[in-house]
Specification:
The complex is a heterodimer of chains A (about 130) and B (about 110). Chain A is an all-beta fold. Chain A is built from no helices and eleven strands. Helix content of chain A is about 0%, strand content about 55%. In chain A, strand 9 and strand 10 form a beta hairpin. Helix content of chain B is about 0%, strand content about 55%. By secondary structure, chain B is mainly beta. The N and C termini of chain B lie far apart (about 35 Å). The chains are: A mainly beta (about 130), B mainly beta (about 110). At the A-B interface, strand 5, strand 9 and strand 10 of A face strand 4, strand 5, strand 9 and strand 10 of B.
């Protein structure tokens, strides 16, 4: 069965860095685009970043451009989010999610929506 | 594209029909509109994609409809486990993925 397990969250001071990981299993990781979606305490969902199935394309919400970097290690079926210059407003539960949409021959070239989510990891940015 | 969900909170009793609205600021490309359910302390769960297709394992009391800028999620008869927060989400070719602010369905 598909599983996504995030790790790496914690408490960090403003301006510092944190690296999140998402270990994937139960599917062919290299066939799917992957995403990070966050949720601030008591708030709604916000898409943060995406990486294409082959890692060649990366996209970010404006508020994290230049500070966050999404990457993937296909050999380890793991997704990463490197977060630098963290701000208080980055405090949230961060979910990784599998993207699906245009998937000819089992390879998802475009993500229209998210069919599997991890349980999330909490990031708190505070002095 | 901005998605606006209404109402913010829906107070209903088990067995009643729930109608949730999601309105987009521009036409949603090819009806790339999805709905998710989120229970307290849990990750979101995909319910509907492509505006009207049910995801795997989703009961048929959940249905989605709409096109262009106006979309609806209907729960035909609320079960106790359906009381949760519901989000709509759209994709466009920028690419951009955005969520609505959510509708809470609570027990009356």
């Amino acid at each position: 069965q598909v599983q996504l397990v995030e790790s790496g969250g914690g408490v960090v001071q403003p301006g510092r860095s944190l690296r999140l990981s998402c270990a994937a299993s139960g599917f062919t990781f290299s066939n799917y685009g992957m995403h990070w979606v966050r949720q601030a305490p008591g708030k709604g969902l916000e898409w943060v970043a995406a990486i294409s199935f082959d890692g060649s394309n990366k996209f970010y919400v404006d508020s994290v451009k230049g500070r966050f970097t999404i990457s993937r290690d296909t050999s380890k079926s793991t997704l990463f989010l490197q977060m630098n210059s963290l701000r208080a407003e980055d405090s949230a539960v961060y979910y990784c999610a599998r993207g699906v949409g245009d998937c000819p021959n089992g390879v998802c070239y475009r993500s229209h929506h998210f069919d599997y989510w991890g349980q999330g990891t909490l990031v708190t940015v505070s002095s | 594209i901005v998605l606006t969900q209404s109402p913010g909170t829906l107070s209903l009793s088990p067995g009643e029909r729930a109608t949730l609205s999601c309105r987009a600021s521009q036409s949603v490309t090819s009806n790339y509109l999805a709905w998710y359910q989120q229970k307290s302390g849990q990750a979101p769960r995909l319910l509907i994609y492509g505006a009207s297709s049910r995801a795997t394992g989703i009961p048929d009391r959940f249905s989605g409809s709409g096109s262009g800028t106006d979309f609806t999620l209907t729960i035909s008869r609320l079960e106790p486990e359906d009381f949760a927060v519901y989000y709509c989400q759209q994709y466009n070719t920028s690419p951009e993925w955005t969520f609505g602010q959510g509708t809470k369905v609570e027990i009356k």
